[in-house]
Design goal:
Structural class: alpha+beta
CATH architecture of the largest domain: 2-Layer Sandwich
CATH class of the largest domain: Alpha Beta
Number of strands: 12
Strand order of the largest sheet: 2-1-5-4-3
Number of helices: 12
Radius of gyration: 33 Å
Helix content: 55-70%
Shape: elongated
Order of helices and strands: HHEEHEEEHHHHHEHEEHEEHHEE
Strand content: 15-25%
Distance between the termini: 111 Å
Largest sheet: 5 strands, antiparallel
C-alpha cells in the first residue's frame, strides 16, 4: 500500500511536472505570438506613417520645383534651407519621423522636428547615412517606393524612400522603434528560459500554479481574440504571474487606440492642412463680388445706365483674384506686404460697395462710420481689402434678416482701428477659445482658415486682429500702425 502511494506520488509529480512544463511552453508560445503580433502592428503603422510622410514630402517638393523654373540654378545650400522648411512643416505632424531629400551625393532639407530633446534636429544621422543612401539610390534607380527594416542591437530601424521627380532626387523618411532590436529579443528569450526553469524547480506547487496559469492563459487567449475584434476591450487586472502580461497587452491596446486616433487626426490635417485650401478659401470672396457685380450690370444694361465705375469693380476683383492665384502657385514664397501710409477711407468704401448687393439680398445694411476722412495708417491696401471683406462676409452670414453691420474706423492710442460688428447671436465660450485656430469652424462647408489667414495678414503688416466682447453680436477689430 505504501509502495503504491509512493508510486502514485511519483506519478503525480511526473504529471505535475509535465503539466508545469506544458503550461510554461504554452505561455512562451502565447507571449511570443503576442510580441510578434504587436511588432507586426507597430511595423504596419510605422510603414503607414512613413508612407504618408513620404507622400507629402514628395508632393510638396514637386510643387516647389514646378513653381520655380530657376530651381536647378539655385545653390545647394539655398536649396537645402528651402527644402528644410518643407520637411520641418510636414514631419511635425509625424512624431518620431525624420527625413528629407537625397540628391546624390547631397542630403537636402533634412529635419527631425519631433526629436526627443525638444529641439528640432538638423544634422543627418551619421551611423545610418550609408543605409539611407543605399535605400534612396535603389528607389531612384528602380523608380518605385522601397522600404528597409533593419534590426539593430537595441532598435528596429525602418527606412522608406521614393523617387522625387524625373531629375533624380529621392525622398526619404526614417523612424526608430526603440526596444525592438536583437538584444531586446535575446533578453526576452532569456527571461522565458528562466521562467521555465523556475517552473520545473517548483514542481511541488506546480499543479496549483499550473491550474492558475491555465485559467490565466485561457483568459488572455480569449482576451486577445476579443482585442482583435474590438480594441476598446481591456483584459481584467490580475494580481498573479500573468498580471504583468495583462497590463502589457492593455498598454498595447491603449497605444493602438491612440495611434488610430492620431492617424484620423493626421488624415484630417492632411486633408485640410494645405495652405492651398486657405488660399482657395480666400478666392471665394472676389468671385462672389464679381458675380454680384455682374448681376448688377445685367440690371443696369436694361436701362443703359452702366458706368465706368461698375466695370472698375470687376477689374479690381479680377486683379485681386489673380494675385491670390499667384500666391497659390508659390507656396514657399510669402509675399511681403507693400505698406504705405495712406487714408483708410477709400479701402473701406470700396469694401462696402463690394458687399452692398449681397447685403440687400439679406435685407441687411452695412453702415460705415469713420472718425475722420483723413484717417491715415500704414498698410497694404490689397491685403486690407481681403481682410475686411472676409470679416464683412462673415458678419453678413451671422446677421439676422434685416440686421445691421457696422464698419467703424477710428484712431486710438496711436493706432488705427477698424471694427466690424454684426447683430447676430454672438460667440459662445468654446468658439472664443478656438476662434483663430486653423481648421476650427462652425460652418458646414467652411475650412476654418479665413480668420487664421486674416490675422496672419494683419500681423505681417505690424498690426493685429482680435475679438472684442460686446453686449450683443460679434465684433472683430483690426489694429494697424499709423506710420511705417
Amino acid at each position: 500500500m505504501n509502495r503504491f502511494l509512493r508510486h502514485r506520488l511519483v506519478l503525480q509529480l511526473l504529471f505535475t511536472s509535465v503539466a508545469a512544463f506544458s503550461v510554461a511552453t504554452l505561455s512562451i508560445v502565447l507571449i511570443s505570438q503576442a510580441i510578434s503580433n504587436a511588432e507586426r502592428v507597430v511595423l504596419a503603422e510605422t510603414r503607414t506613417s512613413l508612407g504618408a510622410a513620404i507622400s507629402e514630402l514628395r508632393q510638396q517638393y514637386q510643387f516647389r520645383v514646378a513653381s520655380d523654373n530657376s530651381w536647378q540654378n539655385v545653390p545647394v545650400q539655398a536649396r537645402d534651407v528651402s527644402l528644410r522648411g518643407i520637411s520641418e512643416t510636414v514631419l511635425r505632424s509625424y512624431p518620431g519621423v525624420e527625413g528629407g531629400y537625397y540628391d546624390a551625393p547631397e542630403f537636402l532639407g533634412y529635419a527631425f522636428p519631433t526629436h526627443d530633446t525638444g529641439a528640432a534636429k538638423l544634422d543627418v544621422p551619421v551611423a545610418e547615412k550609408g543605409l539611407i543612401v543605399a535605400v534612396a539610390e535603389r528607389s531612384r534607380r528602380e523608380k518605385r517606393v522601397l522600404d528597409e527594416v533593419i534590426r539593430g542591437k537595441t532598435d528596429l530601424l525602418v527606412i522608406r524612400a521614393a523617387p522625387g521627380d524625373g531629375g533624380g532626387v529621392a525622398v526619404w523618411a526614417m523612424k526608430r522603434l526603440a526596444g525592438r532590436g536583437a538584444s531586446g529579443a535575446g533578453r526576452g528569450e532569456f527571461l522565458l528560459v528562466v521562467l521555465v526553469a523556475a517552473a520545473l524547480i517548483s514542481i511541488a506547487g506546480a499543479l496549483a500554479t499550473g491550474l492558475s496559469l491555465a485559467r490565466g492563459v485561457a483568459e488572455i487567449k480569449d482576451g486577445l481574440a476579443l482585442l482583435e475584434k474590438n480594441f476598446d476591450f481591456l483584459l481584467p487586472e490580475r494580481s498573479d504571474e500573468l498580471g504583468g502580461i495583462s497590463k502589457s497587452i492593455n498598454k498595447m491596446a491603449d497605444s493602438r487606440r491612440k495611434l488610430e486616433s492620431d492617424l484620423i487626426r493626421e488624415d484630417r490635417l492632411r486633408a485640410l492642412g494645405r495652405l492651398t485650401a486657405g488660399l482657395a478659401h480666400e478666392i471665394r470672396n472676389p468671385l462672389n463680388s464679381i458675380r454680384l457685380t455682374v448681376q448688377l450690370l445685367e440690371h443696369k444694361l436694361k436701362s443703359n445706365s452702366i458706368q465706368h465705375e461698375d466695370l472698375r469693380v470687376v477689374r479690381a476683383e479680377v486683379d485681386r483674384l489673380n494675385s491670390l492665384l499667384n500666391e497659390l502657385l508659390d507656396l514657399q514664397r510669402v509675399r511681403q506686404p507693400k505698406r504705405e501710409t495712406q487714408s483708410m477711407l477709400p479701402v473701406l468704401e470700396h469694401c462696402v460697395r463690394l458687399v452692398e448687393r449681397q447685403a440687400e439680398m439679406h435685407n441687411a445694411s452695412v453702415r460705415l462710420q469713420v472718425q475722420s476722412s483723413e484717417l491715415l495708417a500704414s498698410f497694404d491696401a490689397q491685403q486690407l481689402t481681403q481682410i475686411v471683406m472676409n470679416l464683412l462676409l462673415n458678419a453678413l452670414e451671422a446677421s439676422p434678416h434685416g440686421g445691421n453691420i457696422y464698419l467703424r474706423a477710428s484712431r486710438e492710442n496711436g493706432v488705427a482701428r477698424v471694427e466690424v460688428q454684426d447683430e447676430g447671436p454672438g460667440l459662445d465660450p468654446e468658439q472664443k477659445d478656438h476662434l483663430f485656430e486653423p481648421f476650427f469652424t462652425t460652418k458646414a462647408s467652411g475650412t476654418g482658415l479665413g480668420l487664421a489667414v486674416s490675422r496672419e495678414l494683419v500681423r505681417s503688416q505690424g498690426g493685429d486682429l482680435f475679438y472684442l466682447q460686446r453686449e450683443s453680436g460679434a465684433c472683430f477689430a483690426i489694429e494697424l500702425p499709423t506710420t511705417n
